[in-house]
Write a structure and sequence with these properties.
five-stranded parallel β-sheet; alpha/beta; about 20% strand
Length: about 120
């Protein structure tokens, strides 16, 4: 069973994503900010990461860069609100594999995870 780290400061968004992914056979770990995401990545070594961009303490872009330092093969999809295209481009350049726009379409989330895990 593939393990997915779901990172979002909004508990409701994490809950929605975790419910969707667990119903589709994935094991999920949660983090509510970038610092926690980096720590959980180190300890859990998930197969994929769904990473929100806008969060307190450490944003998703910085968390992505930290995760890439730990594992250059990390499979990370950024989760973004509309209007953050420039940040998404920067994230892709920094190593993100995909992105999902909020409010997310369940099929789009599943497609992003399947694409990352292969």
């Amino acid at each position: 069973m593939a393990k997915v780290l779901v990172v979002d400061d909004a508990q409701f968004m994490r809950m929605r994503a975790v419910k969707l992914l667990t119903q589709n056979g994935y094991e999920c770990i949660e983090a509510e900010n970038g610092i926690e995401a980096v720590d959980k990545y180190k300890s859990e070594r998930p197969d994929a990461v769904m990473l929100d961009i806008t969060m307190p303490d450490m944003d998703g872009l910085e968390a992505l860069k930290q995760i890439q330092k730990i594992d250059s093969n990390a499979k990370v999809a950024m989760v973004t609100a509309m209007g953050q295209q420039s940040i998404v481009i920067e994230a892709i350049k920094a190593g993100a594999k995909d992105f999902v726009v909020k409010p997310f379409d369940p099929n789009r989330v599943l497609a992003a995870v399947q694409k990352m895990i292969g």
